Amino acid sequence: MSNQNTLILTVQTDKNLSKLQKQFNSHVKKINELKEKLVKDAQQLELIVSRIQTDIVPLEYKHIDKIVEMVYLFDKHYDDKFFKKKEKEKIAHFILSKSEELIEQAGKDELKVMFDKYAGQTYDEIAEETETESIDLMKQMMKDMFDIELDEEEEKVNDPDFLHDIFEKKLEEKEAFEQASQKEKKKTAKQLEKEEKLKEEAQNINKAARSIYTDLVKAYHPDREPDEAERERKTEIMKQITQAYEKNDLFELLRLKISLQSIDINAWKMADEQLKYYNKLLKEQLIELEREHWELYNKANGPSGNLFQRFGLDNDTTKTRIKREMTRIKNNIKSIENDINMLRMKENMRAFLKTYNMFDDDDFF
């Protein structure tokens, strides 16, 4: 928290702070908290992903292999004359549903042969038909929802990724054309005045950050420093200064200026106009940090849900939940192994098939 405290404006009573000073303090506090949270959450995500790869993924592979073993057991029973027609229909249904699931979700392409045997049509043929329907639907959506027309060559495209690229490009062109059309409309004097004011304000905001950067560069540029140790120190400082400036990190530039030059921020006289520009820059930085935080959470999304929600935001919670997930998968593996041993006997398979519902979505394994 020391980084934040060096930037907080303080007086004897909070009432003596101006509105701009209070805004400055609020932005500094929020930015500092969000920066710390970003670092902490990024490290936590890295830990979660690492633990998943080392502890959970191997168990998931073993779990998948056991389901594959179950599919082959059902296939063996299908060819046995012991089972009646209705029972064989259920066996075939189980094999088809599990094979399709394992091919699509676990990449078990070796089960395509098994799928083809019971589907009456190959897996690849069905996938091609589904893709064609999806492409046709995408083309129709482009026309109906976005009013985007395809030329003769584009209509022939049957690659969904390539079609998506065409869609993105045409949508960008359409939006650019609409924006250009809007600009062509004659602007009122009030609109022009507002645009000019915003432009001038943006220049002043950039100038506020640049002035801090320039002051720091003058003080810490290492080129003319004769002492080797001091030159190395200034080189490292310049890296921090340049990195902060390139990222538009006013918070870090201010922190560097105050900490490096031993400035008491309360004694550092900032005019209201200067403080106003700092506040705007800090607010923009806060919005950018919030976007980065959202992107981090989005990065944590996976097929089984958000990793932060599943495994927690602190080490102890992550450790407990990883262990719990490992136990759950191990129990599932043991359960499938027991089922395989039991279903090897035809009589037990028959008993199972009596309870098996082809129209039920329950996942037995």
TrEMBL record:
Gene3D superfamilies: DnaJ domain. Residues 17-48, 182-212, 279-346 form a coiled coil. Keywords: Coiled coil, Kinase, Transferase. GO terms for molecular function: kinase activity. InterPro entries: J_dom_sf. The keyword Metal-binding does not apply. This is Chemotaxis protein histidine kinase CheA. It comes from Arcicella rosea.
